[in-house]
Design brief:
Layout lengths: L1 E8 L4 H8 L2 E11 L4 E10 L2 H13 L3 E10 L2 E9 L2 H8 L3 E2 L3 E4 L2 E8 L2 H11 L5 E9 L2 H22 L3 H13 L10 H8 L3 H33 L2
Helix pairs in contact: 1-2, 3-4, 5-8, 6-8, 7-8
């Protein structure tokens, strides 16, 4: 599989037209391509600088010539959620023509989209890129890589470790978060150390013992899940011989 990450500016896309004309951004976490009808069905999340900009952006989506159906599902303040069915744009047509597929959500800001697409082989990927050149649209390849089972599993393991660390961070109290942030910024964890417990205590206006206790609690919340994730990775390496 060939995975491509692209920045795209399409002349015939409702989302690009809306985000290019107004201060509103779109993310499409759910989508489905109807091959029989050559249409793309999207669930669109919209967020703007204010309520007016969101409404203007949604109006562009609703009235665009490529929009086949539009349904506003929810709106609150400067955010909204909608269901959009649109025709096949020139660039999306090139992807479909070369048996390409979407591998991630669209992101659309300032008239420019971020695409994650895949192709089964180099020939298909090159064919789609060549087709892009025949249109007035613009694109830039941000990342290109070959995906095989080993790299996919490595990415999954990295995501697991990252998620585990994030879960630990979410468990921090406000005091723990502020204390460990101050410690890092001040150089408490540097080698050699450029700040002491006394320095942190003075800055936070608490005792040395209080700072030490807060740091130990925060460190445990952050390190315990990380060590567990690393142990899982080590077991996998021993099993597979990596």
């Amino acid at each position: 599989m060939i995975s491509l990450a692209l920045s795209v500016r399409q002349c015939d896309c409702p989302l690009s037209a809306a985000s290019g004309a107004h201060d509103v951004a779109f993310v499409t976490p759910h989508w489905h391509y109807h091959h029989d009808r050559s249409r793309l069905e999207l669930r669109v999340l919209a967020e703007g600088s204010d309520r007016t900009e969101v409404e203007r952006g949604l109006d562009v989506l609703r009235t665009h010539e490529e929009t086949k159906s539009f349904e506003l599902l929810a709106k609150q303040g400067h955010a909204a959620r909608a269901r959009l069915t649109m025709g096949t744009t020139n660039m999306m047509g090139a992807v479909v023509e070369h048996d390409g597929y979407l591998t991630g959500p669209f992101e659309n800001v300032g008239g420019s989209e971020r695409w994650e697409i895949g192709f089964d082989d180099e020939v298909a990927a090159e064919g789609a890129l060549a087709a892009f050149e025949r249109h007035d649209d613009e694109y830039e390849i941000r990342d290109r890589r070959r995906v095989d089972p080993a790299t996919v599993l490595e990415d999954v393991r990295a995501d697991v470790v990252g998620t585990t660390v994030l879960e630990g961070a979410r468990r921090l109290t406000r005091t723990e978060r502020e204390t460990i942030r101050r410690a890092v910024d001040a150089g408490y964890y540097d080698v050699p150390r450029t700040a002491t417990l006394g320095d942190l205590a003075a800055a936070l206006e608490v005792s040395d013992a209080a700072v030490s206790k807060t740091l130990r609690r925060a460190e445990r919340k952050l390190l315990a899940p990380t060590v567990t994730a690393l142990e899982s990775t080590d077991r996998h390496a021993r099993t597979t011989g990596e």
